[in-house]
Amino acid sequence: MTPFGANVKGVGIPFMFEARNKRYMTLDIKNNDNDRKIFSKLAKKAAVVIETFPAGDMDSWGIGFRQLKEENPGLIYIAITPYGQYTDKAKQFARMPDSDITSQAGSGLPAEMGDVPDAGEPYNWPLRAGMWAGWYISGLSAALAGIVALIHRQNTGQGQMVDVASMDAYSSMVGIPATIGYTWEKARPRIGVLDFILYPYGHWKCKDGFVCIAAPRDHDFRALLKILGLWEIEDDWRYTSDRIPDILEQATHLHKLIEKVTMQHTADDLVKMALNYSKKSARSKWRGGGVPIIMKVMTPEKAMGNKQWQIRKTFQEVEDKDLGKYYLSSSFVKMSESPPRVKWVSCEIGKDNDYIIDKYLKGV
């Protein structure tokens, strides 16, 4: 899959991003008995096995967790499926391939992210995240669970089955609204640009685009009013309880009052106003310690021009003997003793078959 069919020597651009630091081996474990034996031998030496087949398939082929743990009691077996390994829902959708969009849709979160109900078409449509958030959260959940399982194995010698349901992983991000709705015995409203708890905490239009504003604490909010010249409304919105986003008409009214002022300034001016106030607030005992945060909402093109990325080497130039030079996001963490790195980029499926067999199965 690649935008506009663009590729480099037959390799799609997204795969180039995903292919770093991996070895690629091909096995037909569904139909080939010998390949299943090879897989079983590899799993016998493995710390972790991750699979994404429909629930029960690996077990039916004789190479599921139930069988593999007999030869490797310390094996950590991570299975990722839409609804997990049990429940009626998992059985009903067992043959449904895992997809990001279904994880998002089934979680309830897109409806939370859509605009307010009375916004009118098309603004009140439910929204999906602009990237594959469901898939990435599933992968992150699997990685974190795998690390905990490795620590448990280190302490006890025991392996275990890790059952990751992508629907669970993404739905967990809806936790607070669901808990509040259950407690109040009514569904949370769709609140559009508002946050589901904090206010002000969202996006506002300005003269040349948008800014995000975070000033949810009472003293931060009062500082924001001073910056924007809106102190006359302070009495009506003084406390957090006065600014509950669930009271949509009330919160929307305040949103418009703030936006009427932000529309008179550029994003850079608003950011500067907040920074200058915060510097003075840090030195003054009379300003109440309020620190409102205002930041310019950047387009991807403008964000890529930020020198921060070059200084921190967030994007790294890599070179592949077949694909040439190109940039990858290298790492989002910096570690003093064991920094992550791109060791190689490899995109040829099956090219490591002999290497893996020679390295791990020689003499077995």
Sequence-ordered SSE layout with sheet pairings:
Elements: E1 7-8, E2 11-12, H1 13-18, H2 33-45, E3 48-51, H3 57-60, H4 65-71, E4 76-81, H5 88-92, H6 100-107, H7 109-113, H8 133-156, E5 160-165, H9 166-171, H10 175-184, E6 201-206, E7 209-214, H11 218-228, H12 248-262, H13 267-283, E8 293-296, H14 300-304, H15 307-311, E9 315-320, E10 324-329, H16 353-360
Parallel strand pairs: 3-4, 4-5
Antiparallel strand pairs: 1-2, 6-7, 7-8, 9-10
Characterize the structure shown.
- With 364 residues, this protein is α/β, with parallel strands linked by helices.
- The protein is 41% helix and 13% strand.
- The chain contains 16 helices and ten strands.
- The strands form four sheets. A three-stranded parallel sheet has the order 3-4-5. Strands 6-7-8 form a three-stranded antiparallel sheet. A two-stranded antiparallel ribbon has the order 1-2.
- A hairpin with a 2-residue loop joins strand 6 (201-206) and strand 7 (209-214).
- The protein starts with 6 loop residues before the first strand and ends with a helix.
- The model has no long low-confidence stretch (mean pLDDT 87).
Q: What is the makeup of the main sheet?
A: 3 strands, parallel
Q: Ends: how far apart?
A: 38 Å
| Tally of DSSP helical segments | 16
CATH class categorisation of one domain: Alpha Beta
Number of beta strands: 10
Cross-sheet strand order for the largest sheet: 3-4-5
Please report which band the strand proportion falls in: under 5%, 5-15%, 15-25%, 25-35%, 35-45% or over 45%: 5-15%
Helix and strand sequence? EEHHEHHEHHHHEHHEEHHHEHHEEH
CATH architecture tag of one domain:
3-Layer(aba) Sandwich
Mean pLDDT: 87
